[in-house]
Amino acid sequence: MDNWVGYTGYDFLEPQLLLLLCAAPFLIFFLIRSEKLKTFGIKYTQSFKLQEKMESSFVRRLRWFLLALKVMVFVLLVIAISRPFSWTDFSNNDTLNSKGIELNFVLDVSESMQAMDLKPNRLSAAKNVIEKFVNSRKGDRIGLVTYSGEAYTVCPRTVDHNLLLSQLRKANGNDLIQGTAIGIGLGTAVAQMKGDSTESKAIILLTDGTNNSGDLSPEDAANLAKSENIRVYTIGVGTNGMAPMPGNSLLGMGGFYAPVEIDETILKNIADLTSAKYFRATNSESLKDILTEIDKIEKKRIKDSTDIKASIPIPKSLLFLLIIFLVLLLISDLILFKGNE
Fold first, then answer.
1. Which residues touch 203 (CB under 8 Å, ≥6 apart)?
2. Residues of the chain with CATH 3.40.50.410
3. Confidence label for 248 from pLDDT (cuts 50, 70 and 90)
4. Region 98-304: CATH code
5. Where are the alpha helices (DSSP H) in 180-315?
6. Mean pLDDT, to the nearest integer, of 13-25?
7. Is 195 left (phi over 0), alpha (psi -120 to 50) or beta?
8. Which residues contact 119 (CB under 8 A, 6 or more apart)?
9. Is 50 exceeded by the pLDDT of residue 167?
10. Full DSSP string of 191-211
11. Is 209 within 8 Å of 180 (Cβ atoms)?
């Protein structure tokens, strides 16, 4: 499912356990076969006809009812141990799945992001891969900050991914002061996440330049992120050497080439300081691969974390009750029926 917003069904944290349902037909076959070897265990000495009537009507129905209950309890047990949860809870209440993360994208929208070394240009390529990344995440609150010479919160963190993506598609730097204020962009995203008690927090910062604007340096912004336990993945966007830029000649056509200047040292330092990783995207495909790798890193980090527990609408007591009910079914089976000798 590309986008879960509006989805009103259930998902599973341990979906592989649902494969146990494949055993249901074998269970049914075994139960039916065993039923044929059983006789009713309560005898009536007053009348053999009454006994026969009981076995031909009531007992037969009782047997099939108990058999159906056993299969139903088995199915419910498998579903329970697969740990189901409802996405509806997240979309309605804008709450965070404790298996998810708090995430902010910090996107450079300066004029140089119009360079066409990534197709159709750097900004559009970045938007496309961000959209695919967002569609692959479930339960995460994701926000978007854009920056050039100043920063702007395009969309606060939300689980309403439709809203986020609609704002992402419209994002540009037309109304912002020109420049590349990496520190201000990162600092704005950190400020939004400051004080959040969520265990897993990350920022993905994309830029194609060097910091040349703003009062907050990238190093200071990185230290702020570190103090809030926020990982900052940094991505340098652009080829090596020269990149084609759109432009107009006297005839209304043409363009020019501009040097690619990415301060990789600063970006690496930001990532290292916050226990994250720096990437370089020299084309659209590598940018897509980078976000895919970040997605895998974050999912593995959550999976490996032992102190993050999933929010499950099915209470643990239900699993206990199902087991007790199954035991009672087996006991009643022993009381009512006995095998032929």
1. 103, 104, 105, 106, 186, 189, 190, 193, 225, 230, 231, 232, 233
2. 98-304
3. low
4. 3.40.50.410
5. 182-193, 218-227, 264-273, 284-304
6. 82
7. left
8. 125, 283, 284
9. yes
10. HHHTT---S-EEEEEEESS--
11. yes
pTM above 0.85, yes or no: no
Q: Find the range with the poorest average confidence among 145-149, 164-168, 331-335.
A: 331-335
Task: Answer for the pair 122, 239: CB distance below 8 angstroms, yes or no.
Answer: no
Q: What is the pLDDT of residue 196?
A: 80
The Cα 339–Cα 331 span in angstroms is 14
Q: Show Cβ contacts of residue 249 under 8 Å, excluding neighbours closer than 6 positions.
A: none
Residues contacting 205, CB < 8 A, separation 6+:
106, 182, 185, 186, 189, 232, 233, 234, 235, 267, 270
Number of neighbouring beta carbons within 10 Å of residue 203:
29
For tokens 């809870």, the residue is 89
DSSP SS3 for 93:
helix
Place of tokens 């190093």: 219
If we measure between CA atoms, which residue out of 125, 120, 169 comes closest to residue 144?
169
Residue whose C-alpha is closest to residue 123's, from 99, 137, 105: 105
